[in-house]
């Protein structure tokens, strides 16, 4: 019972904690793409700026403290329900995504999924279909013609691209032979040429583009990009409810990245190290990793201390922010000594079988999260690179071009499988 | 212990509620929603019996009912939109062109 | 444990079904119906029909109800009154009493043990079993339903167009 609660709570907490990182990544990343610096002023105690990450904390405080406006004559129940629906549905999808290979702990099978459903991928499609509700109810209940139109357009876009999503997944399923997401990930063994983006490149491209449309990200940004021109479906929302929509968009992005990386890029598989290899040699792998991390901390620490002393001497910014690099550098040096000490001390302790299971699981979860963050970066990168589609261009692309291509892809996959 | 009778009673209650909605409401869309309730009540019956007899045919029949309900909802709602465009109302007692 | 879950989900389904009939605002009816479908999907999952539970959420709650809400928003329907003449409340009371009498009769009738569910194999209700049946024994209805869906798509597009 406790285990099930932990398995539900941990993915939810992971999403909740990646969202501020994504907000920071979006603002800094977009800034550097647009050849400017991005936010770097908010600070803790005047010293810690962390390159702008403190702005996410400032955002949270600002959104909590803003006045919560409820416009006149809105349908109160649905007005309040819509952002909660959007956020809940976004977090529900994480139940079926595998974080690491299943392990046998003291004779009990422990899978790193909250629910190993028989119809895993169908569950993800079903929950994405429910994501349309939050947007439609938000657009309708705001008692505003423009939000209604924005909500209707957005929901039409989302249901059109759900079809492309499902058809793209079918060709992946034909190769994998099972709907369970854990089997699809295991089927893509550590051989890089077996990963589904090599075996099904067209389906990968179609699915990624469909996910961009599902999460309402640029270039399919019309429902919320309109807020820069006229209105979007979350125009009439303020403070915490708007924050929930905002977070729901980033949560949808994280889930889209997680599903893309599980289906096409091998999920938790580390490219050249299979699960058995890792479990057999866990000790050496961990020791090498700790030593590399210690050396990295040492170099970073020395560099930061040198930069910090230069900043203080040259009075680069003139306020207490000059001391930041020095403090972070000394922290990194301390971390280097700590890691070196750990790698020397716990060396005899890591040869047990249980510890190697844990180490393998941690490494695979780390690999999975790296892939998820990489795809989130791709989402952000594309947002600031491509211009926005017009609504009729968007619908034409979904129905007239992508759907026939996905059906032809299914036929081609079937033909190839028949011949082999 | 939950047996077959529990699920059948729930199915009967849902069917009765669907019939009540079909008869009592005047808005065409709510009548459509009551029809969906009727279909779901029968689906629940199918699946309860399929589990009781260990026969998968009930689930396949349910699958087809869902597919047919989707098709019917699509065509029915298209007709409702066409009617609204021509008559301006969706209350069934105002759509009485064929009355004598 | 199972009986608690059954009563919770069964109660949710029946309560929200009542909400469909008795809410005045059509969007509230539609949202109520979505919750009802969730309750029914949960009942399917308790009856070991896992594939059908997910299909219920995907098709009914995710697609058909989206279509309903779409049309309600498009036509911009407002809340309407339930009846024009005042409804004699005595009819409701009598109907309720008759229904309760029926329910008690059924409950007494069905107390025997032969209505307990037999144990079932692990793959009952999995997508593999349903798929196997769909492609062997029920192939003809499967193909017919695909033609039916194609006709429905074309009909939907043609009927809702502004000019042909």
The unreliable regions of chain C are none
CATH class annotation of chain B? Mainly Alpha
Examine the coordinates and then state which fold CATH places here, giving the name of the CATH topology of the largest domain in chain C.
Four Helix Bundle (Hemerythrin (Met), subunit A)
User: What is the SS-derived class of chain B?
Assistant: mainly alpha
Mind describing the biggest β-sheet of chain B? none
**What is the approximate shape of chain B?**
elongated
What's the architecture of chain B, going by CATH?
Orthogonal Bundle
Largest interface: B-C, 63 and 72 residues
Helix content of chain C: over 70%
Please give the alpha-carbon distance between the first and last residues of chain C.
57 Å
Strand content of chain C: under 5%
Q: CATH superfamily of the largest domain in chain C, called what?
A: NADH-ubiquinone/plastoquinone oxidoreductase chain 6, subunit NuoJ
Rg over CA atoms of chain C: 21 Å
Oligomer: heterotrimer
Structural class of chain C: mainly alpha
Could you tell me the strand content of chain B as a percent range? Answer: under 5%
Brief descriptors of the model:
heterotrimer, A: 420 residues, mainly alpha, 2 domains, 69% helix, B: elongated
Molecular structure report:
The complex is a heterotrimer of chains A (420), B (100) and C (164). Chain A is 69% helix and 1% strand. Chain A is mainly alpha-helical and 420 residues long. Chain A has two domains: 63-269 and 387-419, no CATH class; 282-351. In chain A, strands 1-2 form a two-stranded antiparallel ribbon. In chain A, strand 1 and strand 2 (108-110) form a beta hairpin. Chain A is globular. Chain B has 100 residues and is mainly alpha-helical. Helix content of chain B is 78%, strand content 0%. Chain B has helices at 4-24, 28-53, 57-87. The model of chain B has no long low-confidence stretch (mean pLDDT 89). Chain C has 164 residues and is mainly alpha-helical. Chain C is 73% helix and 0% strand. Chain C is built from six helices and no strands. The mean pLDDT of chain C is 85.
């Amino acid at each position: 019972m406790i285990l099930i609660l932990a398995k539900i709570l941990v993915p939810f907490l992971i999403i909740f904690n990646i969202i501020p990182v994504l907000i920071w990544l979006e603002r800094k990343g977009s800034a550097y793409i647009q050849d400017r610096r991005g936010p770097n002023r908010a600070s803790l105690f005047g010293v810690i700026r962390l390159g702008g990450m403190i702005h996410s904390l400032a955002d949270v405080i600002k959104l909590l403290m803003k006045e919560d406006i409820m416009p006149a004559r809105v349908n109160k129940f649905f007005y309040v329900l819509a952002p909660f629906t959007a956020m809940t549905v976004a977090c529900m999808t994480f139940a079926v995504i595998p974080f690491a290979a299943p392990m046998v702990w003291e004779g009990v099978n422990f899978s790193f999924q909250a629910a190993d459903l028989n119809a895993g991928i169908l569950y993800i499609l079903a929950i994405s279909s429910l994501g349309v509700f939050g947007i439609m109810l938000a657009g309708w209940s705001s008692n505003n013609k423009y939000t209604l139109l924005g909500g209707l357009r957005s929901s039409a876009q989302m249901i059109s691209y759900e079809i492309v999503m499902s058809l793209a997944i079918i060709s992946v399923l034909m190769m994998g032979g099972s709907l369970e997401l854990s089997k699809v990930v295991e089927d893509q063994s550590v051989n890089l040429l077996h990963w589904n983006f090599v075996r099904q490149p067209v389906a990968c491209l179609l699915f990624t583009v469909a996910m961009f449309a599902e999460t309402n990200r640029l270039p399919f940004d019309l429902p919320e990009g309109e807020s820069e021109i006229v209105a979007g479906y979350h125009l009439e929302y303020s403070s915490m409810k708007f924050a929930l929509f905002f977070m729901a968009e980033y949560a949808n992005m994280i889930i889209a990245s997680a599903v893309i990386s599980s289906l096409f890029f091998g999920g938790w598989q580390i490219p050249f190290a299979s699960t058995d290899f890792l479990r057999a040699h866990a000790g050496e792998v961990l020791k090498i990793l700790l030593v590399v991390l210690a050396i990295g901390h040492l170099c970073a620490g020395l560099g930061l201390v040198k930069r910090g002393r230069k900043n203080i001497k040259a009075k680069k910014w003139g306020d207490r922010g000059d001391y930041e690099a020095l403090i972070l550098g000394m922290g990194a040096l301390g971390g280097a000594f700590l890691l070196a000490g750990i790698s020397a001390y716990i060396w005899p302790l890591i040869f047990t079988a249980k510890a190697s299971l844990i180490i393998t699981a941690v490494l695979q979860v780390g690999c999975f999260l790296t892939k998820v963050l990489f795809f989130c970066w791709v989402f952000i990168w594309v947002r600031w690179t491509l211009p926005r589609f017009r609504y009729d261009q968007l619908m034409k692309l979904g129905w007239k071009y992508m759907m026939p291509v996905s059906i032809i892809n299914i036929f081609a996959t079937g033909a190839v499988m028949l011949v082999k | 212990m939950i047996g077959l009778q529990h699920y059948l009673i729930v199915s009967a209650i849902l069917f009765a509620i669907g019939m009540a909605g079909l008869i009592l409401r005047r808005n065409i869309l709510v009548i459509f929603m009551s029809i969906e309730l009727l279909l779901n009540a029968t689906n629940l019956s199918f699946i309860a019996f399929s589990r009781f007899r260990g026969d998968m045919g009930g689930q396949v029949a349910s699958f087809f009912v869902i597919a047919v309900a989707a098709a019917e909802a699509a065509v029915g709602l298209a007709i409702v939109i066409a009617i609204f465009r021509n008559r301006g109302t969706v209350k069934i007692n105002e759509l009485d062109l064929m009355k004598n | 444990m199972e009986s608690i879950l059954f009563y919770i989900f069964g109660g949710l389904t029946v309560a929200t079904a009542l909400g469909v009939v008795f809410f005045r605002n059509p969007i509230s009816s539609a949202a109520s119906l979505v919750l009802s479908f969730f309750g029914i999907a949960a009942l399917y999952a308790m009856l070991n029909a896992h594939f059908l539970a997910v299909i219920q959420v995907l098709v009914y709650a995710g697609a058909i109800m989206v279509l309903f809400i779409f049309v309600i928003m498009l036509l911009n329907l407002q809340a309407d009154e339930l009846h024009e003449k005042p409804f004699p409340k005595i009819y409701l009371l009598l109907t309720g009493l008759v229904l309760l009498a029926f329910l008690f009769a059924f409950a007494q009738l069905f107390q025997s043990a032969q209505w307990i569910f037999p144990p079932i194999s692990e793959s009952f209700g999995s997508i593999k079993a349903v798929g196997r049946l769909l492609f062997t024994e029920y192939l003809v209805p499967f193909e017919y339903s695909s033609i039916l869906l194609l006709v429905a798509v074309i009909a939907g597009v043609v009927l809702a167009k502004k000019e042909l």
